[in-house]
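User: Fold this one for me? It's peptide chain release factor N(5)-glutamine methyltransferase.
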Amino acid sequence: MIRKCSSGLLRLLSHARKSFEAYDVPESINRHCSTSSKDLFTLQLKKFENEKVSEAVSSLELFFAHVLGKDKLSDVRSEIKNELKLNSDQIEMIESMCDCRLSKMPTQYILKEWDFNDLRLKMKIPVFIPRPETEELVNIITQELDSSKEYKILEVGCGTGCISLSLLRFMPNVKQIIAIDQSKTACELTKENSLNLELSNRLKVFNYKLKDDSLPEEISQNGPFDVIVSNPPYVPSKDLLRLAPEIFLYEDIRALDGGPEGLNIIQLLLEISSKYLSKNGNLWMEVDHRHPEIIEKLVENNRDEWNLKFIASRKDLFKKERFVNIKKL
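Assistant: Here's what I get for peptide chain release factor N(5)-glutamine methyltransferase.
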């Protein structure tokens, strides 16, 4: 069961929303008796709209789907339209989830799970929530790699494990993936998700923070790597306060803050790739849309030292330059 946000957490985040006392709850919404799903949906939607909660309708539909045990949102809409009666336990669960959402908690954390490339992954505060753009990155890599060859892959910043686990699931020719993250919680979550998906036999996870162009022996001994992949922290520090409250109140800031220009970890990844990629190996990164041109110049200026070549940048679904591919010569 989804529990309510603790009272301490709600007090801490009270600046993010108005008090729930401002709302008049219809007499028909009573936890001690059944009530219409339509009435409850309408009431909570009004609260969401008053508080300017993003994606209000879809969030509510997902909460109802979770509580009602529905896999299809179309089924949820039908139940609401037909005014399905809810019992007191269902009402309490939905209200608890809505209370958390009103405090700007992301829907993924409230549901404690999220789908990524058809994989259902466990979610946990404050581990970085996978975005649709990262699904695009995975799809690009699977299209580019040769299905007849074996690959050893290093992922830097594994988070929930979404990239590594997708590659393992959809590419049986991936021999092994080494996944690292500076967050112990993220490493534990990646391991949990790998066990749930029965993909742990080809995955090793290490709690490690990149400091320079060297990897500890326990990681480097698994190389050289045919592919290094990362969705690194790439938000310039000055832009962090512009992020939505759902992000800066709940998600690990270390997974976002890329330093003054957003390039701190990207620079380290280039240096790591120059040392630990195999000949003709590839580095794939998801980056800020302002970065590809800068990265291309950086690689060109250090070509003799790094022995890397900038291959291409690709646009995401929003037509922004988002993904870069760099090859070891």
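One thing worth pointing out: The first strand starts at residue 35 and ends at 36.
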